[in-house]
Amino acid sequence: MRQVRIVSSWTLEDSWKYAGKDWGISLHRVCSRTGSFPPSLAYYFIERFSEPGDVVFDPFSGKGTAPLEACRSGRIGIGNDLAPEAYVITHAKVRPVMARQVIEWVERNRQFVENYRGCDVPEEVEVFYNKYTLRQLLAVRELLMNDDSDLGIFIKAVILGILHGSSSLSLSVKCSHSFSMAPRYVEKSIHRLGLKKPRRNVLDCLLERTSRLMDGYVPMTRGRAFMRDARWTGLGDESVDMIITSPPYFNMQTYAWDNWLRLWFLGHDYREVSKKLFHTSSIKKFREFIQDALKEMFRVMKWDRPCFLVVGLVKLNGQKINMAEIIAPIAEKIGFSPVRIIMDTIPRENKYLMYLREDQGVSREVILELHKGVAAERDVSIDWKRGLPVEKKVIMA
Ligand SMILES: C[S@@+](CC[C@H](N)C(=O)[O-])C[C@H]1O[C@@H](n2cnc3c(N)ncnc32)[C@H](O)[C@@H]1O
To answer: In angstroms, rounded to a whole number, what is the distance separating the alpha carbons of residues 346 and 365?
Structure first.
């Protein structure tokens, strides 16, 4: 294999490490989800390795951080993720609607929601909600179930973001907002700690949350979102200018179970979703999967363009694995040139996963830079303290 340069993220000029912890527009916070990278990291690579108007693709987009940053920077952000809740969040970020449209939707549907008589609810869902709130939630769920318009998907994403958590707009009893907790654990906590299920008006919470998300800057550039297997995205040959993505870290994250309540709201059973998503503890299976995913990335990319893979130094059954070292030779066989490995430290609070055993986990992140041909870096400087740059051009995908 050719020589790959190893550098630290702190030594890069204008590194995202100098951006504040909360850097990024409010829309990034539509819904939290485990295992995501910061908006500043996506912005750094998009700004330095692509031009306005370019197509930036993330085949494992999770909560859509990279596609949103791409749209915000005047690129066309395309996100893909096989998990339904990830697709909804990504879609909402690359095709946001106006707050006025959400207000009108609420006005049109308020009577239906407030007069809704209810229907059967799984016991494990009931655990989380006050009866009044749950009835409204079921009405909103029914209204949105078959609504795949930009507005319908945007409202679904906002509801997913308040479906559980501990803020004043969270619809559930106090619990984690980043992952759906086990119902039995929540039930026990309610008894042990005397927690009260809050009586919330779902539509008022939706309106308040929307206005908070829209208080800052909302990109005018529209992107696209897909819910496909990353090994066959359906994008055209050589149609993408840059890839920035983060594939699954073996079995470090159990995305379907972590989002079981959000999946219920969207009409999915987490067990069925889990069967479709890739997760494994086998290095051999990981190699096979990543080879197919990389072949697809190579096919859709234009020549002389870069691909950034955010992966981890993971501990799997006591064994330390550098995912970049596994991926680089496979990528090279496919035709990519592995150019750089950027070592990055991750804030502990971002990666803390309570269900992992002691001999499992992600200790650091590494970014593997691959080129299809020879990709050039732009000579731009990034001032993290300055306000976000204003878009000059509006591009519709
Ligand atoms: C490390 S996460 C990506 C996180 C993302 N960068 C973010 O900032 O939120 C990996 C993602 O791969 C998705 N995934 C798993 N198997 C997949 C497959 N076969 N095709 C597409 N996406 C898949 C998971 O749902 C998960 O969102």
So the answer is: 6
What is the per-residue pLDDT across 165-204, written as a single tens digit (0 to 9) for each? Answer: 999 999 999 999 999 999 999 999 999 999 999 999 999 9
Tell me the mean pLDDT in the region 84-104. Answer: 97
- Domain extents in the chain: 5-95+223-372, 99-213
Please list every protein residue whose CB sits less than 6 Å from any atom of ligand 1: 33, 35-37, 60-63, 65, 81-83, 86, 229-230, 246-248, 255, 277-278
CA 262, 265, 271: angle at the middle one, nearest 5? 65
- What is the topology classification, in CATH, of domain 5-95+223-372? Rossmann fold (3.40.50)
- The pTM score is 0.93
Candidate ranges 21-35, 49-63, 377-391; pick with highest mean pLDDT: 49-63
Whose C-alpha lies nearest to ligand 1, atom 3?
A: 62
* Sign, CA torsion 124/127/131/136: negative
Compute the distance from residue 78 Cα to the ligand 1 centre, in Å.
Answer: 14
Give me ligand 1 centre to Cα 64, in Å.
Answer: 10
State the CB neighbour count (10 A cutoff) for residue 255.
24
